[in-house]
Design goal:
The chain is of the alpha+beta class and 108 residues long. It has one domain: 2-Layer Sandwich (Ribosomal Protein L30, Chain: A), CATH 3.30.1390.
Length: 108
Amino acid sequence: MAPVRRPGLPQTQVVTRPEVEPPYHVILLDDDKHTYAYVIEMLQGLFGHPFETAFKLADKVNADGRVIVATCHKELAELRLEQIHEYGADPRLPESKGSMSATIEPAE
């Protein structure tokens, strides 16, 4: 049986909300094969961080061994992780043979 529609009365609508994806952290890991300049350039290029933010993140990864560089949904976090891993070696250091390491983990 179809619902009865009465003129002048508002119709009831069912509104469903899309599921919110849980956030993930993109975490850059420290090493001795990349310069501050490399880290800053990478963070500016990949994440759009301004110089001051990129410098603070470079300083934190150097001091703590890891730093959260972004928090986003899982698919974007995976893309950012791939971009970090594909960024390439630091041309300033002959011993730099590849990109920096990074990981993702659920944000709590």
